[in-house]
Amino acid sequence: MIALLRGRLFEKHPTRVIVETGGVGYELHVPLSSFASIGDVGSDVTLRVHTHVREDALQLFGFTTALEQTLFERLVSVSGIGPRLALAVLSGIAPQDLVRAVSGGDAARLVAIPGIGRKTADRIVLELRDKMASIEQAGEGAASGDGLRADLVSALVNLGYHRPAAEKAVETALSASGGQFDAALRQALDSLTRGRR
């Protein structure tokens, strides 16, 4: 089973990438959150991999963070949710927001994701609510220092800002916000939108 791939980014599309390593190109399906944080074509890339085996196919799903991979694997464990639908969920909501929505029983937040109906959202909440508690606690511990900085940069990049500008805005916002994610994000967004005027 392939668990990790490190190589050169050969091709990049919103739902899939090709990573070349050792002269072989591996196609990986990725959520939008991972797509946004992967570099440009030709750059080095490292992806965590979930190998999905079916009778007629072997598919690789790639993730830039352990949280994304863990959430994907929890989602595919829910009855009626396959890897494509799990990827759609991760593409429609930020990982930490998904954890909070499921932990808080907020099925309405999941219904807002394209392709997720009320029954599916209720099933996700029902089957994963208890399992999300440990993820949420781990996330709270990691939401400081480098983890918080990376989450903020990732959020801004996902919103369409260029990484260098996002990193600069995050550095300034973190020093002024006291390390609170929401406050830092608002401040970084304010700084970036002022720069665009």
Structure description:
There is one protein chain. The chain has 197 residues and is an alpha+beta fold. The protein has 3 domains: 60 residues, Nucleic acid-binding proteins (OB fold (Dihydrolipoamide Acetyltransferase, E2P), Beta Barrel); 75 residues, 5' to 3' exonuclease, C-terminal subdomain (DNA polymerase, domain 1, Orthogonal Bundle), CATH 1.10.150.20; 52 residues, Orthogonal Bundle (Helicase, Ruva Protein, domain 3). The chain has 9 helices and 5 strands; from the N terminus they run E-E-E-H-E-E-H-H-H-H-H-H-H-H. Strand 1 and strand 2 form a beta hairpin. Helix 7 crosses helix 8. The radius of gyration is 17 Å and the shape is flat.
Short recap of the structure:
Helices cover 56% and strands 19% of the residues.
Which CATH architecture of the largest domain? Orthogonal Bundle
CATH H level of the largest domain: which superfamily? Answer: 5' to 3' exonuclease, C-terminal subdomain
For the sheet with most strands, the description reads: 5 strands, mixed, barrel
- Look up the CATH topology of the largest domain: DNA polymerase, domain 1
Count of DSSP H/I helices: 9
Shape: flat
Strand content: 15-25%
Average pLDDT, rounded to a whole number, is: 84
Strand order, biggest sheet?
A: 1-2-3-5-4
User: Total strand count, please?
Assistant: 5
Task: Using the CA coordinates, give the radius of gyration.
Answer: 17 Å
